[in-house]
């Protein structure tokens, strides 16, 4: 699974990868990183169901959408460990987290000031 995720990161930057696969991969990664789940984790057994079923199913669907030659080249690069560094995405995610924290602090201060 780790190899597939790393290969998907490489394939997402390939121009031959269909746009719909890139969009679905973006939503899949956002869901995986999101603290909000369809089924809350505190529910016994069912809470982990989305991580055990939905995420691998999503990876499988995205892999099927990408042309086989693109996925093979991406898997080869992932096996070599030569992964692309996307500084723009990293900075965007960092700024998004900082904005979220600032919004929570602002909300907390307004709530306590009233």
UniProtKB/TrEMBL annotation:
TM stretches of this protein: 45-66, 87-108
Limits of the DUF1232 domain: 21-57
Compartment(s) where it occurs, according to its Swiss-Prot or TrEMBL record: Endomembrane system
Bilayer topology term: Multi-pass membrane protein
Entry keywords, A to Z: Membrane, Transmembrane, Transmembrane helix
Pfam families per the UniProt record, alphabetical: DUF1232
GO cellular component: endomembrane system
Top-rank taxon: Bacteria
Principal localisation: membrane
Keyword Transmembrane in annotation: yes
Stated name of the protein: DUF1232 domain-containing protein
Organism of this sequence: Methyloversatilis universalis (strain ATCC BAA-1314 / DSM 25237 / JCM 13912 / CCUG 52030 / FAM5)
């Amino acid at each position: 699974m780790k190899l597939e995720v790393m290969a998907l990161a490489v394939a997402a930057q390939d121009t031959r990868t269909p746009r719909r696969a890139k969009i679905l991969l973006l939503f899949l990664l956002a869901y995986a990183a999101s603290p909000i789940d369809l089924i809350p984790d505190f529910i016994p057994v069912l809470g982990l169901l989305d991580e055990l079923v939905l995420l691998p199913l999503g990876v499988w669907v995205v892999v099927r959408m990408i042309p086989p030659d693109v996925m093979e080249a991406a898997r080869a690069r992932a096996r070599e460990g030569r992964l692309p560094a996307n500084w723009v995405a990293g900075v965007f995610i960092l700024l998004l987290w900082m904005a979220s924290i600032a919004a929570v602090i602002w909300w907390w201060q307004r709530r306590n000031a009233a």
